[in-house]
Give the backbone structure.
Amino acid sequence: MNKLRPFSILVYVLANAIGVLALVLPFVAPALQTSQTQGAPLFLALMIALCFIALLLEAQGGAATAKFMALLGVLVAINSVLRFIEVAIPGPGGFSPIFFLIILAGYIYGAQFGFLMGALTLLISALTTGGIGPWLPAQMLTASWVGLSAGTVRTLTSRLNLSERCEISILAVLGAVWGFLYGIIINLWFWPFAVGPAAQSMEPHASIWPLIQRYMAYYLATSLIWDLARALGNTIMMAAFGRPTLRALRRFRHRFAFTYTVTPEPEDTVTQRL
């Protein structure tokens, strides 16, 4: 992706800040806990607007513009089809094949690419599967963080000249971690408003530690097994299909001659891996 200007960086920072604020606001402002759908349309509109602003800013990169847009569109389309299949033929628990490609795309093409890949995958797939609802903004935000984190991992490991086996191992661990984190974060959009056992419900005037205890009790009782299937699925997919997919994405990167925000690999290293 093209080198980000300060205003472009601000757009990504703003998108993340709005998302974090929307998730934590009910905890710091209990009076706003009137409905789980309150504010969701505005949140969704802001997320979509910021994603398209980010796309427009990335499109100012000159010769790489068409290639970037085309590749992002193709990968989002592939992931949307995978999610359509997942909806038609549900897998076990919270397993979904879409995180596999979000992680690899973010790792190869950078944090900004991964952010857009995650957010747009959830948006487009929601349009095709009828999955539009008050949960969609939180899903877009969390999926964008999956891709963003993969790009951050690439930044941290770019100077280590890791073997493919090490890369896949790291990405498999990342997929497993996000299998649980995705569920933990997604629950936050509705947990403050959910009705359940007192020990698992939100207490508006409780301090932070009791709130964490209540939420963890809720998570362990309702979501842990569901998210375990997602974590295992991400790990298995990465182990089974990670290496050939990584090579294909890396080949496209080398061929398209993208400009990255992470440190690129030496050409001879890439050639040896291919």
Observations:
- Residues 224-256 form the longest helix (33 residues).
